[in-house]
Amino acid sequence: MDAKILIESFAEFARSKNVDRPTMIRILEDVFRAMIRKKFETDENFDVTINADKGDLEIFRIREIVDDNSEDIWDFDKISLTEARKIEPDFEIGEEVYEQIELEEFGRRAVQMARQTLIQKIKDLEKDILYNKYEEQVGEIISAEVYQILGREILLIDGEGNELILPKGEQIPKDRFRKGDTVKAIVHRVDMMNGNPKVILSRTSPVFLERLFENEVPEVYDGLITIIKIVREPGERAKVAVESYDDRIDPVGACVGMKGSRIHAIVRELQNENIDVINYTDNLDLYVSRALSPAKVSSISINPDTKRISVFLKPDQVSLAIGKGGHNIKLASRLVGYEIDVFRELNEYEEEDVDLAEFSDEIDEWIIDELKKTGLDTAKSVLALTKEDLTRRTELEEETIDEIFRILKTEFEQ
C-alpha cells in the first residue's frame, strides 16, 4: 500500500465523520513521524508535508554539510561533504541538504505497521467523535431504530449506524418493542467501558417527560411556562408542577391543551401514564392539596421539624388520595418534599371507633405507621377490609395481619 492510498482512505473517513482538516492532518503527520523515529531514532530534522486532498506525501531529511574530518559528523543533523556531493556534486560546507525520503525506503513491514496504526487511530477517533457527540446531547430526546432485543436491554441504531442501549430498568414497564420499531428516548448518560463509549438511553427519567412537554407545549419550550418539578412512577402516574410568570397564561390549561389535545400525545408516548399537571404555589397547604388531586382534602397539619404532613379527608376521598398501588400519595410526597400521612375524618356514626394509636401496647409502632400510611387510622377502617385487601395495600406478612385482626376484633367483642 502506497502513501496515496493510505492518505486518501483516511481522509475519506475523516470527512464522513466531519473531522476538521487540521485534526486530520495532525493524525496523519503523527503516524508518519512515528515511522521516521522508528528508522532514524529522531524526527527533529525531518519535514513532513501532507496534501490530504490529493493524497500527496513528501518527507525531507534536512542536514547541514560539515567537513569530512569534523567532530560533528556523527550528529543526526549533520552530513559529510563527501556524502552530500553524492546527492548533488556542487554542494559546499555549511549548506543544508534536503534529501527526499520515499515511503518505500522504510520497508514493507514499516509501511504495514503505519497502516495498522492509522486504522487504530481511525477507530480511536471514531470513538472520540461518538462520545463527544452524545455527551453534548445528554438530556435531549433522540429517535433510534430497534435492531436487537436482549433479556436485559434493547440495542438500537441511530441514523449513522452507531449502537445505543436502552436497559430494562430505563424502559417503561408497559413498553413492548419489535425489531425495526422507532423508539423515542433521552440520552441518559455516556459511559466509557474499556475505552469504548456506551450510550445509555432512558424512557423512565423525569427529564424525558420534561422534553416531551417542551415538544408538545410551545409555551414551555419558549420559557413562558416553567416546569418546577416532575415526579414519576413510569407507566403508572406522574405529577408535574408548573408555573407561569405571566398572569395572562394559565399554565395547567396550556399544558393540557384544548380537550386534552396536548397532554394526550404525551400520555400515548408514555404508554398511557396518568399525568397530573399541578399549578405550583409557595403556599404549602394549597400545594399539598393540589398534589393529592384528584382527592379533596378537608384539613392539613404540617410539622416542619419532622418534615411530615397529616392530611384529613372524608372517608370516600381516602382511596383517591392513596391511589392505585399507593402511587398517588407516594408521588405527592416526593413532589412537595414532605412525608404525607392520610387520616379519615370520623363522622357522627363512627364515634365508637377506636384510633389505632390506642393499640400501641399490643401492636408494634411500625405496624401502626404502615397502616396509617395507607389511610387506615382506626380499628374499624382496618376491620372493614379483607385479609387480601390488607396484604395488597401493605407490605405486612399474612401472620401479622391475622394477629392485627385478632387484636382489633377482641376490642369490639369486649
From TrEMBL:
<dbReference type="InterPro" id="IPR036555">
    <property type="entry name" value="NusA_N_sf"/>
</dbReference>
<dbReference type="InterPro" id="IPR013735">
    <property type="entry name" value="TF_NusA_N"/>
</dbReference>
<keyword id="KW-0806">Transcription termination</keyword>
<dbReference type="GO" id="GO:0006353">
    <property type="term" value="P:DNA-templated transcription termination"/>
</dbReference>
<comment type="function">
    <text>Participates in both transcription termination and antitermination.</text>
</comment>
<dbReference type="Pfam" id="PF13184">
    <property type="entry name" value="KH_NusA_1st"/>
</dbReference>
<dbReference type="GO" id="GO:0005829">
    <property type="term" value="C:cytosol"/>
</dbReference>
<dbReference type="GO" id="GO:0003723">
    <property type="term" value="F:RNA binding"/>
</dbReference>
<dbReference type="InterPro" id="IPR010995">
    <property type="entry name" value="DNA_repair_Rad51/TF_NusA_a-hlx"/>
</dbReference>
<keyword id="KW-0963">Cytoplasm</keyword>
<dbReference type="Pfam" id="PF08529">
    <property type="entry name" value="NusA_N"/>
</dbReference>
<comment type="similarity">
    <text>Belongs to the NusA family.</text>
</comment>
<dbReference type="Pfam" id="PF26594">
    <property type="entry name" value="KH_NusA_2nd"/>
</dbReference>
<keyword id="KW-0805">Transcription regulation</keyword>
<dbReference type="InterPro" id="IPR058582">
    <property type="entry name" value="KH_NusA_2nd"/>
</dbReference>
<feature type="domain" description="S1 motif">
    <location>
        <begin position="139"/>
        <end position="204"/>
    </location>
</feature>
<dbReference type="InterPro" id="IPR012340">
    <property type="entry name" value="NA-bd_OB-fold"/>
</dbReference>
<comment type="subunit">
    <text>Monomer. Binds directly to the core enzyme of the DNA-dependent RNA polymerase and to nascent RNA.</text>
</comment>
<dbReference type="GO" id="GO:0000166">
    <property type="term" value="F:nucleotide binding"/>
</dbReference>
<dbReference type="InterPro" id="IPR025249">
    <property type="entry name" value="TF_NusA_KH_1st"/>
</dbReference>
<dbReference type="InterPro" id="IPR009019">
    <property type="entry name" value="KH_sf_prok-type"/>
</dbReference>
<dbReference type="GO" id="GO:0003700">
    <property type="term" value="F:DNA-binding transcription factor activity"/>
</dbReference>
<protein>
    <recommendedName>
        <fullName>Transcription termination/antitermination protein NusA</fullName>
    </recommendedName>
</protein>
<keyword id="KW-0694">RNA-binding</keyword>
<keyword id="KW-0804">Transcription</keyword>
<keyword id="KW-0889">Transcription antitermination</keyword>
<dbReference type="InterPro" id="IPR003029">
    <property type="entry name" value="S1_domain"/>
</dbReference>
<dbReference type="InterPro" id="IPR010213">
    <property type="entry name" value="TF_NusA"/>
</dbReference>
<dbReference type="GO" id="GO:0031564">
    <property type="term" value="P:transcription antitermination"/>
</dbReference>
<dbReference type="InterPro" id="IPR030842">
    <property type="entry name" value="TF_NusA_bacterial"/>
</dbReference>
<dbReference type="InterPro" id="IPR015946">
    <property type="entry name" value="KH_dom-like_a/b"/>
</dbReference>
